[in-house]
Amino acid sequence: MLTDSLAYLTRSDELWKTSIIGGLMLLFGFLLVSLFLVWGYVVRVLERTTHGDDEVPRFEDWGEMLIDGAKASVILLAYSLVPIVVGGVLAGIATLVAGGSVDSIGAAAAAVTGLVTFATVLVVAYAVPAAITNFAVEGRLAAGFDVGDIRPILASGTYAVAWLLALGIVVAGSIVTGALNAIPFVGVVLGAIVAFYALVAASHAIGRAWFDLHPVPLEEMGNDDDEMSTERPAI
Question: Exposed end of the chain (fewer CB within 10 Å): N or C?
Fold first, then answer.
């Protein structure tokens, strides 16, 4: 799976064009439009790979890609708020329990708050790829929050292995990106390209795991390529 995911983008006849566009979009991610387009591309990757299609999508249909990316970002933001809220509530409770004291009670309360918040971050990080993938498959924003669909995926060993693989790819990409950033200008651009490549490879791993759990070949989707971009069948 690792080799397959890392080689995914290389199957495109527009490898460098796609990688450079994606890298530049990621580099200018502080402009929300660029960030939305990156996530829109990720949605395209997930949409294809979850149905067993390894054809690499192109940067096209920009308007639809922008909308899908914005929706994926909403899902990501919503899940990201969970540990923030949990941490804030626990911090407030810990403050009340400790009463501003720095004794053992205050230290214990702070430690529990930190551990629970960290655990919540891990749970959210584990769930987000599945949530965005479910949205990519069904094409509905609400699908990203459909616990009934997502829970069986999260409980599967196939998804767990794919998630760990995707995490490893992203972490490795981040390390390489950090090293390249030390090179003035060119290194920053190359680092962004590597980060985009890693994000796509990680998304491919998640999408293939989803396909392994819900094998729905493209020929059974009931839509041609044009319809596929606007009507995504639910699994």
Answer: N
- Nearest-angstrom CA–CA distance, 74 and 96: 33
14 in Cβ contact with 191 (< 8 Å): no
3-state secondary structure of 100: coil
User: Rounded to two decimals, what is the model's pTM?
Assistant: 0.85
CB under 8 Å to 32, separation ≥6 — which residues? 73
Q: What does each C-alpha distance from 114 to 83, 87, 98, 219 come to in angstroms?
A: 11, 8, 15, 49
The encoded tokens of residue 81 equal 């708020």
* pLDDT in single tens digits along all 235 residues of the chain: 788 899 999 998 888 999 999 999 999 988 899 999 999 999 999 999 998 888 899 998 899 999 999 999 999 999 999 999 998 888 888 777 666 555 666 677 778 888 989 999 999 999 999 999 999 999 899 999 999 999 999 999 999 999 999 999 999 999 999 999 889 889 999 999 999 999 999 999 999 999 988 765 444 444 444 444 444 444 3
